[in-house]
Amino acid sequence: MLDRQNKRPNDLSAFWMPFTANRQFKETPRMLVAAKDMHFTAEDGRKIMDGTAGLWCVNAGHCRPKITEAIQKQAAELDYAPAFQMGHPIAFEFANRLAAMAPEGMDHVFFTNSGSESVDTALKIALAYHRVKGDGSRFRLIGRERGYHGVNFGGISVGGIVSNRKMFGTLLTGVDHMPHTHLPGENAFTRGEPEHGGDLADELERIVALHDASTVAAVIVEPVAGSTGVLIPPKGYLKRLRDICDKHGILLIFDEVITGFGRLGAPFAADYFGVVPDIMTTAKGVTNGVIPMGAVFVKKEIHDAFMNGPEHLIEFFHGYTYSGNPIACAAGLATLDTYQEEGLLTRASELADHWADALHSLKGEPHVIDIRNIGLVGAVELESIPGEPTKRAFSAFLKAYERGFLIRTTGDIIALSPPLIISRGQIDELIDNLRDVLRMID
Ligand code: PMP
């Protein structure tokens, strides 16, 4: 049944796997060889329910025929064409489609190949924007503790994860961090947006006052921090950040790599929270995770500031060999068709109550110290075994895999973000399985 590419090779040593305990994995590998809709197939033929949409990306589910066919057709017609001083129609068409669905005023799109590249591109646009406006003293960037903005140097500099930072030298200079917004004491077991902590946005005022606003270029946050454990913004927090940025002429960047394309029940978190940033980074769901691609959305005023420079010059000296790759654009267009035809961009809002009820039914199960949810995202936080801050959740991950469903863990937090095609019955199945797993682990 498996074709050649999907048979396990004799030797697993050459592939240095990302974000993986390689030695441990290669002793007991877990191999996925096929996928369809809500499920992977493991190499032993077992179906594994995808509780995480891959890595928060396969929003429309796996191996959707429309997307597969679009990729095949494009690969046979125009596989690659440079996008430097050359164009190909599908990249313009895809940018138009994206701009049309973006929050009001975000009319321009810069293509990248990943979330990390989108973040670094956004930071560069922000810095260069102030320069082209003659305000080059705005060089500081402000991120947040527990922020994850990918793994490139800009992203790890503004990000707030110690393990991402400690091995890699001095990183970008001129970066500061706001505190994270996770207040387990006050907000544990909140459904949706927490009541407490909106005033943490005022920390931005403090940092701006410390450096003077005239030196600050941009603030970057994930509207909902995903990979550091599903941290949901307290009520009013994002709006307050927006107000402070406006007051001081600072650009606000939303990293929507996870929240973009329907995860919260609206096309973007900016729509969901009613707070529009100046720049928005996306990736993952832009092509349903099928082909690497990212897209940075930019407000008209920012784009126009570059376009008002001297003519015949390259306005923004930045880009990637694969920016706007035709096959990625074809996958993206078919992905948007699928999202729109099946109502997937708002489906999380239809499922949100059922999802919240199911998740919060885990309150009181062994080890559970917090549960958080928004849209079709959830986190179940476990009490750590003293001195072993990742062990419990990871044993849940292993048990879950054995039982046939995929969860994601970060520290002792279990994160869930299933494809948006999940049915109510499948939500119940996922959560019931998780309940059983929680009762099994030590
Ligand atoms: N930003 C955020 C908010 C993310 O969640 C991620 C990936 N999980 C990234 C950036 C990086 O994306 P990539 O892995 O595609 O580089």
TrEMBL record:
Name the family the entry cites: Belongs to the class-III pyridoxal-phosphate-dependent aminotransferase family.
Which GO MF terms does the UniProt record name? transaminase activity
Give me the segments passing through the membrane: none
State its cofactor: pyridoxal 5'-phosphate
Q: Which InterPro entries match?
A: Aminotrans_3, Aminotrans_3_PPA_site, PyrdxlP-dep_Trfase, PyrdxlP-dep_Trfase_major, PyrdxlP-dep_Trfase_small
Give the protein's recorded name.
Aspartate aminotransferase family protein
Q: Which Gene3D superfamilies does the entry link to?
A: Aspartate Aminotransferase, domain 1, Type I PLP-dependent aspartate aminotransferase-like (Major domain)
* Alphabetically ordered keywords of this record: Aminotransferase, Pyridoxal phosphate, Transferase
- One short Pfam name that applies is Aminotran_3
